[in-house]
Amino acid sequence: MDERKRDSMIAYLRHRMEEFGIEPEDLAAVLAAEPAAQKAERYRSATGDSWDGQGEMPQWLKQAISAGQSIDHFELSSKTAPVSQPKKHVDWTNDPFAGSPLARSSNSR
Known about the structure:
The chain is mostly helical. Among the domains are: 1-40, no CATH class; 42-76, no CATH class. It contains 4 helices and 2 strands, in the order H-H-E-E-H-H. Strands 1-2 form a two-stranded antiparallel ribbon. The two termini are 45 Å apart.
């Protein structure tokens, strides 16, 4: 990232932090606590079982590997998952097509 883009991003983040009342100390505290939380879990199953990679491998992971699954499948990536955006509410009360054949037609064309 070039310096101009970096400075622009910093200005934007400072503005948003100010808008939401976030102090740099608040952000620093959250960022300082994050690595500890990330180190606590290195592998996680779909059911929420987790393992930090230390000590004996847990039974759920042993079973998955013996069933042919790769251990990499359960490894937590360093990237965070994208946050899903809440769906926008659509007001259909003034829909001019409500009740018409056009509104009832299927989208399978």
